[in-house]
Amino acid sequence: MRRRSAVLTTAAALTGALALAGCSDSGSKSGSGSGSAKAELSVSGPYIPQPVSADMAAGFLTITNKGGAKDQLTSVSSEAAGQVTMHSTMGGSMQEETSFAIPAHGQLVFKSGGNHLMFEKLKRKPKQGQTVTVKLTFAKSGPLTVEMPVKSATYNPSTGH
Amino acid sequence: MRKKTFAAATLLAAATLTLSACGSGTDDKSPVSVVSEESDSGKAATVLDQPFEKPDLVLTDTHGKKYDLRKETKGHPTLVYFGYTHCPDICPTTMSNIAVAKKALPKAEQNDLRVVFVTTDPGRDTPAGLGKWLKGIDPQFIGLTGDFATIQAGARSVGISVEPTKKDKDGKLVSVHGTQVIAFSPKTDSGYVLYGEDATVDDYTKDLPKLMKGANP
């Protein structure tokens, strides 16, 4: 009897997770009432390559969701910049996005050549060794504050230099 | 009714695909390109079986002077990239990677090398603006601007597709950069090696001494 209920619960949880992963579009219909599953977000590998000028800089990081529910990154802001926008890249063209999905048990990756954060109208040019404080806002989870280190203009996270 | 269900299923499938495409980020590095590239060769460089002729581009340099690409770079090892300065990610990274790698060359070779950045956004990249931006990367780099149609035709002649700057739905200007750097040989003046946007400082540092001689990396 005990055994049976455990199996049933697992099956139900799996179905839930699959359904969530399968359609992480807007999240407007589920709200916070989708069972006990919640997004558990953490940020890793944040960095800003030292930009050419204060006009514009890129930022990269990975958001990992250990939870069983999807979430969405809805905005990024920083005291250091007049504006921070989120972009996807296709070929040589970038497109501004209003939000990015973070799948349950998944990752949202911003990396050079792909998705990136774009800082515009910076108060001053970020220099290698400094950090830039950035606030990430999500559809459901509470905001996260990230200290993004400024690396060299040619920094490559896979080699670490 | 049946039809509708199918449409919805297709939409859902499309949404799922889109999500997985932008979510993983580990295996989506192959740029859309009109030039076939060897993949998984472990090398950043692609040596072309059929080298490109150097584009016949006569544009304006960062001092506002006429610059004839073929004439000015004849007999010099030359790297050409098509990009724009209002570009946060790939354009400055590509130019910075080359700038750092160039510093490892002997001084005479540094002076011999021509690195040419051709803007794909001439409306915003004035000679002076381009000059200021490149000075922040390497003062020896050459920046060219001019008529977009001329630039686009030049890019196309070496297999690089760029589009004019246009406004997105929010009225913001969006430009397009090339996804490759082309290396031209000092011996033949033809473009014989391509580098994708994932080429690193180490790749360029390793290959530049060979490119200086027109040898295969």
Automatic annotation (TrEMBL), chain A:
Source taxon at top rank: Bacteria
SUPFAM superfamilies per record: DR1885-like metal-binding protein (SSF110087)
Keywords: Signal
Keyword Disulfide bond: no
Entry keyword Signal: yes
Protein name in UniProt: Copper resistance protein CopZ
Membrane spanning residue stretches: none
PANTHER family, per the entry: BLR7088 PROTEIN, COPPER CHAPERONE PCU(A)C
Signal peptide range: 1-21
UniProtKB/TrEMBL annotation, chain B:
Keyword Chloroplast: no
Gene Ontology MF: a single term: metal ion binding
Listed Pfam families: SCO1-SenC
Domain spans labelled Thioredoxin: 48-213
Transmembrane segments: none
InterPro entries for the chain: SCO1/SenC, Thioredoxin-like_sf, Thioredoxin_domain
Disulfide bonds: 87-91
Gene3D superfamilies named among the record's database cross-references: Glutaredoxin
Family indicated by similarity: Belongs to the SCO1/2 family.
Protein name: Thioredoxin domain-containing protein
